Task: inverse folding
């Protein structure tokens, strides 16, 4: 099998993305078969362990406190609540639980200790555990690894240029630094992005350059179609065309042959035929469960019917990498350092974010 290429240019990626559809599909499906079983799809369940009230201004996100959206906020869940949800996910065929928190970054203390306990608990259920908690330091990544974390999700979300037009409260380099911190441990990296935020095709290619030139490349890559939530700055964006999703999935598959490409947010807008085309083009993972973090997702029974129709099987846990060992809190080698990392706060003005914030103030 050929070595993975790590020096993809934007021009090369654009050339792939813009190929005639039938050639693109054929090439992606061929590469897919060389690296993966085409009849196996990994199933992850999302769990929003801390919802809403976030300090950031991410233009796509219903959980940013400054916008007026209709989501119900929640403090950090208990370990018992998380365990019950994980068992439910396992019983419906999920091999991975991905716990999301509406945090800018992780802070050492009781709440992080509680998250570490959640990681230990789910790993002991023999499920892959993923967390997405915002920016983390190397020490925090080590502590998660020691608890038995399998993957850390931290998306680049767009090209570096377009990111500045969507988020003003943190920089692209912070995202790359967090991914670098995760890479210093044995936790796998899950990183991808969102399409349909008003970006150009060049920005999609720019994001794929940033992801594919990471060495090693991320073990999984979520491709989200924007869920345009009322009250967010991106509320008026038009739904992503299925053809764009297929092109994005196929291009990701071709340039990152080993990664698990995850069909993420936006599946409620896609037909089963559209999703089948995405699987053919190399998608081999989904988020299942009736909710993503705060927005709806297809019914899990409908997803399983789709799997039946297509002859797809859910991937067993730890197929790609052995299960990490869990170290108990009282035997930990890494203590909390209580660091105060200087994550950046560029704070340039994004007109549509300012407008969404102003209209939220009027409504409150
Ligand atoms: N707070 C952490 C962070 O931002 O890294 C973790 C949770 S955050 C909600 C995780 C990811 O969800 C984002 O990076 C983005 O890719 C995705 N996301 C959030 N809102 C979305 C939306 N409306 N549509 C599609 N994807 C979305
Ligand atoms: C990812 O790339 N997509 C997921 C997960 N990683 C954390 C989140 C999608 C969120 C969609 C909007 C919502 O439900 O709040
Ligand atoms: Fe907060 Fe994450 Fe949403 Fe940004 S994407 S507002 S950091 S929860």
Result:
């Amino acid at each position: 099998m050929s070595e993975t290429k790590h020096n993809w240019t934007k021009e090369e990626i654009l050339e792939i993305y813009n190929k005639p559809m039938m050639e693109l599909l054929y090439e992606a499906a061929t590469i897919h078969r060389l690296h993966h079983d085409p009849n196996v799809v990994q199933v992850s369940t999302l769990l929003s362990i801390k919802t809403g009230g976030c300090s950031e201004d991410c233009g796509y996100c219903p959980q940013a406190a400054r916008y007026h959206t209709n989501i119900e906020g929640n403090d950090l869940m208990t370990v018992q609540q998380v365990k019950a949800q994980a068992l439910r996910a396992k019983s419906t065929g999920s091999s991975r639980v991905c716990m999301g928190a509406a945090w800018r970054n992780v802070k050492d203390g009781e709440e992080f200790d509680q998250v570490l306990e959640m990681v230990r608990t789910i790993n002991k259920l023999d499920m892959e555990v993923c967390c997405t908690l915002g920016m983390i330091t190397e020490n925090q990544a080590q502590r998660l690894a020691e608890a038995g974390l399998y993957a850390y999700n931290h998306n680049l979300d767009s090209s570096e240029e377009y990111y500045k037009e969507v988020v003003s409260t943190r920089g692209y380099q912070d995202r790359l630094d967090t991914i670098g911190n995760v890479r210093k441990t044995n936790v796998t990296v899950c990183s991808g992005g969102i399409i349909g935020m008003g970006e150009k095709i060049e920005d999609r290619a720019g994001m794929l350059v940033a992801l594919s030139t990471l060495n090693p490349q991320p073990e999984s890559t979520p491709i989200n179609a924007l869920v345009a939530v009322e009250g967010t700055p991106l509320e008026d964006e038009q739904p992503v065309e299925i053809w764009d999703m297929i092109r994005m999935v196929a291009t990701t598959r071709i340039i990152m042959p080993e990664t698990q490409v995850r069909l993420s947010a936006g599946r409620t807008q896609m037909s089963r035929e559209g999703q089948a085309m995405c699987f053919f083009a190399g998608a081999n993972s989904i988020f299942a469960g009736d909710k993503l973090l705060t927005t709806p997702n297809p019914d899990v029974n409908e997803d399983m019917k789709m799997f039946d129709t297509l002859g797809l099987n859910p991937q067993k846990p730890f197929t790609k990498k052995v299960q990490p060992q869990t170290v108990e809190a009282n035997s930990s080698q890494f203590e909390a350092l209580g660091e105060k990392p200087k994550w950046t706060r560029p704070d340039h003005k994004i007109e549509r974010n300012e407008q969404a914030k102003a209209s939220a103030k009027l409504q409150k």
